[in-house]
Amino acid sequence: MTLVAEDRKSKVQETAQTAESVVAAVRAEFPYLEHKINGRTPIFLDSAASAQKARLCIETLQNALTRSYANVHRGAYSQSAQSTLAYEKARKQVAEFLGAKSEQEIVFTSGATAAINLVAYSFGANVQAGDEIIVSELEHHSNLVPWQLLAERSAAAGKPIKLRFWRITEQATLRLEDLAELLSSRTKLVAVTHASNAFGSIVPIEQVAEMTHKAGAALLVDGAQAAPHLPLSMKELGADFYAFSGHKTYGPNAIGVLWGRSERLNVLPPWQGGGEMIREVQLEKSSYREVPARFEAGTPPIAEAIALGATCDWLASQPRQLLHDYAVGLVRTAHERLGAIAGLRIHGTATDTLPIVSFTLDGVHPHDLATFLDSRAIAVRTGHHCAEPAHRALGLNGSTRASFGIYNTFEEIEALANGVAEAAEFFGSAG
Ligand code: PMP
Questions:
Q1: Full domain range(s) for residue 230
Q2: Residue with the nearest Cα to atom 14 of ligand 1?
Q3: Which of 82, 134, 202, 362 is the most interior residue, by most CB within 10 Å?
Q4: Which of 117, 196, 225 to mutate to test the pocket of ligand 1 (most atoms within 8 A of CB)?
């Protein structure tokens, strides 16, 4: 049935209304948004750095610490057994959130950074002289520096490897043709982000995976930014390793996840030694447990894992595609409204994007702009956002970044645009 224009319009309005009511309900789940800064409701536009915490995360964390805390996998008493069950249930919840085949593919780490370092260390232990690792220029430093360290370690061990760089375009996107030129039988691994933390650009991971595997290499995807926004299925994505952080996913701090395809994870050596990861310890040598325990040395972040599991469950129960589409609407509006301000330039113009917008205002230092916006209770980030090479490639020293979470609204975009326009006037922007 073809919809006549009026019907079409009302369908669009209906969808927008549905999304708005979902966002309103979501907002009610974030206690941070209930408090006031100098009498104003905070407009929090820095979720890409760290997101506000869902009520369920806070309550689960509190409950796990006050009423049911004990170490896991060790105690002979009932509370320890219950903690262990709750901790392992969280692993299952995270596996479901990621669309993983099994919870055995989920390793708890202290964050996305640690998850990537784990792979760089353990997978990196098997590199041979002449192997190549492809890293994109779009990366957060967390998915670049660990590979530089691996290159240094390998060179010191007499088996030098080469890092090859997948350059970005002027739009802060990555071209598959450029990857094709870098891939060869020497490629051991491709390390790339699912989405840029600085410019929002989403990378077509399914296609990257196909190309990488055709070359016989492994694919590590940094999902720190994508996990809070995109519905995910590890079964379909095609990556071999996927990393994300709890604190950007409306969950607790100091916890993150490495997902690894079983065939890949199971053959990796441990990266840290200590309790939990061992099978038997002799004075000279030890043997190690199966994955994932092999990668979880020491007492894990127990309450945080339990709260992350609950948060992932809650997030997965939301209409994620609807929320993502709404967020894309926010970023498009931000582009329109900010783009109309004289002297303002938006950097990164990928069509497939997360709700992240980075911009510069001629003649105004990003820090001054952020301080001005802060006086209106609008929180934005400034600097290179730990993506210095990507900024440099675009000829930038830094930028101002507004990044939206699942709780942001069109009114907040309006307030941002008005605030930036006032700042342009106040500072006499060169535009
Ligand atoms: N990768 C990306 C794309 C990120 O945005 C971040 C955090 N800004 C990280 C990795 C590192 O995450 P964490 O600091 O939580 O380990």
A1: 66-316
A2: 113
A3: 134
A4: 225
The C-alpha atoms of residue 198 and residue 63 are separated, in whole angstroms, by 35
Shared domain check, 88 and 41: no
H or E segment to which residue 163 belongs: strand 162-166
Question: Do residues 278 and 340 share a domain?
Answer: no
Whether this model's pTM surpasses 0.70: yes
Q: What angle do CA 115, 46, 205 make, to 5 degrees?
A: 45
Ligand 1 pocket mutation, candidates 135, 197, 220, criterion most atoms within 8 A of CB: 197
User: CATH code at 172?
Assistant: 3.40.640.10
pLDDT tens readout for residues 270-326: 999 999 999 999 999 999 999 999 999 999 999 999 999 999 999 999 999 999 999
Q: Is 386 labeled as catalytic in the residue annotation?
A: yes
On whether the CB atoms of residues 135 and 143 are closer than 8 A, the answer is yes
CA 41–ligand 1 middle distance (angstroms)? 27
Residue 144 and residue 81 in one domain:
yes
CB-defined site of ligand 1, < 6 Å: 49, 111-113, 140, 142-143, 193, 197, 222, 224-225, 245, 247, 256, 386
